[in-house]
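agent> call fold_tool(seq_1)
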Amino acid sequence: MPGADTALAPGRFEGRARLNAAQRLPAMAPFMVVGRVNGHEESARASSPADALARMLEWLRRDDDASAVWYLREDWPTAVTVIGRLAPGLAGETRRSAHLFQLNPGTVLYGTMIAHCGAELSLPDIEWLNLGAGMPCECCLVLSTPARPCLEG
């Protein structure tokens, strides 16, 4: 699983997050979406990758020439790991493994994302998942950093 200095972002934000004092982060919307729509600069916060993509697609519906990118806010205290897989109907179930994607604060995202295992998925083709959902990609798990230090026996 992800390193101790990496947080996990929900695939979809469902109600108020329950964070203890040690887990409190600057805001419940760690992602930003920025772009140009109908000749004007737009920006919006998003609580999950799915929310960010929905905002980008909304802008494209309003303006065929719209452009947008999203990113983990620069002021976010740590990298975030998000979980996604190919959306239903794009591949058979055996190819729909849940991949791990690490997002670093301020790194702009558009087009495609590359998972820990090297799989490259197009943003509109990703179904975002919450922790524990889907069959994990074994390579992503192996290549990710352990969540806590290992104890020597």
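agent> call fold_tool(seq_2)
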Amino acid sequence: MTAEGSGRVLLRACRIAGLDAAGACLVSSAENSVYRLRGGVVARVGRPGQRGSAGNEVRVARWLERAGLPAVRALTGVAQPVEVDGAPVTFWVELPDHHDAENLQVAEVLRRVHALEPPADFRLPPLAPFVRVRDRIATAPTVSPADRAWLLAYADDLEARHAELPGGRDAGVVHGDAWAGNVAVDGTGTAWIVDLERFSVGPPEWDLVSTAVRMTSFGTLDAVGYRQFCDAYGYDVTAWAGYETLRDIRELRACSYMLQHAASGAAARAEADRRVACLRGRAGERPWHWRRIVTTKASPGDSAVPRRG
């Protein structure tokens, strides 16, 4: 969805919810388009067809609040999600000023999340490691037909390998997308859990792999930092027999995400092409030193919602 399209969805959703969209600022555009509204409210505009995951996110936020875990809070007094042309919109209480968590803080948050009993009043979905991967590959605007066919076949192979995973730790509550950018630390040192839409029930190894691949695949974390993470959590997922399968799935997910945004600029396209080359064995051995490309970052004063009329 374009920035203009998500802005129009936001405007209509705010009218339905009784909120003021005037002066809304586009903060980021990735899997969701995130806007800052007046009065300390943040709106997330999801992609069409994602109502289920948006509803899960709101339910999880309210459950975590009852459980006493610091997590982004869903706005009260609004029936959520609000759906506009198939796109779900959710509204949140803005967090205080914050930065991405350190590895030790991510480990501590995951220990608390993985110790939770599943909620009693609603059912968390089962973990879906391949959610949206094939859609991203199939609709990627810059990938060649040969690479597209290879990536889809590779997804099939990984799904078959995933079905044969060896036993590991007991399944339970998982974040589903547990990396440092999804734990926000405020000025008091409080670590807030964000991006709750993939909360589910599955193997805790899935969450731990997100940090492990920073060392083994992406080269953004050294061995000392990774050991500190393992010591804080109490487990090293790279020693598990199923690690390589989950690692490979995480790599494919990260590649498919970049393919989804490859048309946004030269840097994004170059990074998407490089990630495909790595998966296809054309760019040497791991770690590959993939770059994090921020596709949209608006200035604080920029209005991103179309005027009425």
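agent> summarizing second result for user.
The chain has nine helices and ten strands. Strands lie at 25-29, 33-37, 41-45, 82-84, 87-93, 98-100, 172-174, 183-186, 191-193, 200-202.
agent> awaiting next instruction.
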